[in-house]
């Protein structure tokens, strides 16, 4: 099998790493990839927005299967385009990807199928939104509709903050905006819940908790994710049944009722309030860094799962997990998520000798003249798996200290709810 992976983050490096273990995989290509994927795959420098060029490459190199990591190409319809060209691809199509691409699309499904979520209103102009805020109780959550890479969501403690949020969104901070969403604030604990679907059946694909805020103690602006641990401390059979029955199954049914079956990973961002799940958002892919954190716990051959989805045979396999605790920490460029510098050399990578259950996945890195440089805000992901979260975190700390990269910073409190 020749597989091509779209993306360049830690998630895609972790996917490459897992695929590599399968005997079925002969070669892996990564578009565009990073310095980490380059050591196991062939990085191909193509613009992932240029579907035509990607197709040409796939046909010329006789690629058997494409796996899409990030949301943008999914939302833009890369799956539909490749399938139309008889290319096998893992991921949901453009219609289904609206679950992530449009918060309002998802909210409408929630209303119609009684899926528990925060109460909300959709406002098509600034005046109506501001009028609504005049009568609201705070906090409220103000959201732009489309993709905003983890930004575009404002938790507002006061009328002043919420008015500012509405103004920024309608003034185009996240691209042209025709509507905003104003939501009730849910007070609970967050959980990332993953399933994989082949359009006919679904299987659980692990749980995790991500730390989205940049600062220790979960403060400061949102980021793509500063570190995660898996499994979530909230995981239990009763809650899992509720999530499937009240949230996942009705969502997939809604898509079916609109004539679409869901293929790929689905990531439900949940707020758990007194053991009851509420949907905050869907992502139509694995999370990053949740993917890097969850995959090391997977016992089943990863490619077997991908292959089962492609061939609509997911019901014929069993997905098994190790009973251990995985924790990841993201090493970021100083300044992230605001302005940060790129092109800083990462020197001590050769000093990192990983043993079993230790992983280093690259995110924003690139190779230049045999040297490795930073190339993004989130640069490296260190992951360790052991019999306790505390131990896993200590292992990760040691690895990061050994690297001693002076242009980076990281949160030292990842997993604070499950450690101490
Ligand atoms: P989203 O991009 O919709 O996942 O929102 C980003 C983050 O904002 C979430 O991970 C939550 O921490 C927070 N958030 C979003 N919506 C709500 C809500 N209704 N109540 C409380 N927190 C929320
Ligand atoms: N870690 C959050 C996300 O992947 O959206």
**Radius of gyration from the alpha-carbon trace, in angstroms:** 21 Å
How many structural domains in the coordinates?
4
Roughly how much helix do the residues carry, as a percent range? 25-40%
Number of helices: 12
Strand residues, percent: 25-35%
Quick one: biggest sheet?
A: 9 strands, antiparallel
Average pLDDT, all residues:
95
Number of strands: 22
CATH topology of the largest domain: D-amino Acid Aminotransferase, Chain A, domain 1
Structural class: alpha+beta
Strands, helices and their partners?
Blueprint: E1 2-7, H1 10-20, E2 27-32, E3 42-43, H2 51-60, E4 65-68, H3 71-75, H4 78-84, E5 89-90, H5 98-101, H6 103-112, E6 120-123, H7 126-134, E7 140-144, E8 153-156, H8 159-170, E9 180-184, E10 189-198, E11 202-210, E12 213-215, E13 219-222, E14 227-230, H9 237-257, E15 263-273, E16 276-283, H10 290-294, H11 302-310, E17 325-333, E18 358-362, E19 365-368, E20 371-374, E21 378-386, H12 389-403, E22 408-409
Parallel strand pairs: 1-2, 1-4, 2-3, 4-5
Antiparallel strand pairs: 6-9, 7-8, 7-9, 10-11, 10-15, 11-14, 12-13, 14-17, 15-16, 17-21, 17-22, 18-21, 19-20
Helix pairs in contact: 7-8
The structure holds adenosine monophosphate and glycine.
Residues 118, 141, 153, 155, 183, 185-186, 190, 212, 222, 269, 271, 280-281 line the site of adenosine monophosphate.
């Amino acid at each position: 099998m020749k597989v091509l992976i779209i993306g360049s983050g830690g998630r895609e490096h972790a996917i490459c790493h897992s695929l590599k273990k399968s005997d079925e995989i002969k070669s892996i290509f990564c578009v565009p990839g990073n310095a980490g994927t380059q050591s196991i795959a062939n990085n191909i420098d193509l613009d992932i927005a240029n579907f035509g060029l990607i197709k040409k490459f796939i046909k010329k190199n006789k690629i058997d299967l494409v796996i899409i990591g990030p949301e943008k190409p999914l939302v833009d319809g890369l799956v539909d385009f490749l399938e139309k060209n008889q290319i096998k691809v893992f991921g949901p199509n453009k219609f289904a990807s609206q679950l992530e691409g449009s918060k309002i699309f998802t909210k409408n499904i929630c209303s119609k199928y009684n899926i528990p979520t925060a109460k909300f209103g959709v406002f098509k102009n600034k005046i109506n939104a501001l009028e609504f805020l005049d009568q609201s109780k705070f906090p409220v959550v103000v959201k732009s509709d489309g993709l905003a890479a983890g930004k575009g969501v404002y938790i507002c403690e006061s009328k002043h903050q919420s008015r500012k949020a509405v103004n920024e969104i309608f003034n185009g901070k996240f691209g042209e905006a025709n509507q905003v969403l104003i939501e009730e604030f849910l007070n609970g604990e967050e959980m990332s819940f993953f399933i994989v679907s082949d359009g006919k059946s679904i299987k659980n694909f692990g749980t995790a908790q991500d730390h989205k805020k940049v600062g220790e103690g979960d403060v400061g602006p949102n980021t793509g994710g500063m570190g995660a641990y898996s499994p979530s401390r909230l995981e239990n059979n009763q809650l899992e049944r509720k999530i499937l029955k009240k949230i996942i199954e009705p969502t997939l049914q809604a898509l079916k009722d609109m004539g679409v079956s869901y293929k790929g990973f689905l990531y439900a961002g949940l707020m758990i309030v007194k053991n009851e799940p509420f949907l905050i958002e869907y992502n139509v892919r694995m999370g990053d860094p949740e993917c890097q954190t969850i995959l090391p716990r997977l016992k089943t051959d990863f490619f077997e799962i991908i292959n089962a989805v492609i061939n609509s045979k997911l019901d014929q396999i069993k997905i098994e997990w190790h009973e251990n605790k995985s924790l990841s920490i993201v090493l970021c460029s100083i300044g992230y998520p605001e302005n940060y510098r790129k092109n800083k050399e990462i020197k001590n990578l050769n000093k990192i000798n990983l043993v079993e259950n230790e992983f280093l996945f690259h995110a924003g890195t690139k190779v230049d003249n045999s040297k490795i440089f930073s190339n993004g805000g989130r640069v490296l992901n260190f992951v360790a798996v052991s019999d306790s979260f505390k131990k896993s975190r200590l292992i990760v700390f040691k690895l990061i200290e050994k690297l001693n990269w002076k242009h980076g910073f990281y949160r030292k409190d990842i997993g604070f709810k499950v450690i101490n």
